[in-house]
Design a protein that fits this description.
About 30% of the residues lie in helices and about 20% in strands. The chain has a 3-stranded antiparallel beta sheet with strand order 1-3-2, with helices on one face. It has a two-stranded antiparallel ribbon with strand order 4-5.
Length: about 110
């Protein structure tokens, strides 16, 4: 096993792990529940680890692409799910609340 990413934001680690899994890389999150520690100074960051060290190079590229995508969309306005009307960050392709797929954007 080898660590490929860490963050104090669990949502980032989940998105990175999901991107890796989507690309066929077996990945897991360590310290997933560290944010529930009563003492902030003792909250280790959540970490994404891959199971096959041979996937490290491709995993790092996937991580870099996932973070670049998040960064490029973080300042854009959220989209609203047509099914449940929840707001979702631009980087989400599924509604966080009801898991409905985002509707395709039409170019003008």
């Amino acid at each position: 096993m080898r660590k490929v990413f860490s963050s104090n934001e669990l949502s980032e680690t989940v998105l990175v792990r999901d991107a890796l899994v989507h690309h066929g890389v077996d990945a897991t999150i360590h310290n997933e529940h560290s944010g529930t520690s009563a003492i902030p100074a003792f909250r280790p960051p959540a970490e994404v680890w891959i199971k096959n060290a041979g996937d490290f190079a491709s995993a790092r590229r996937i991580v870099a692409d996932a973070i670049a995508t998040l960064d490029s969309k973080s300042n854009q306005a959220p989209w609203v799910c047509p099914a449940c009307e929840e707001e979702n960050p631009q980087s989400f392709d599924l509604c966080w609340s009801c898991q409905r797929e985002r509707e395709p954007r039409h170019s003008a």
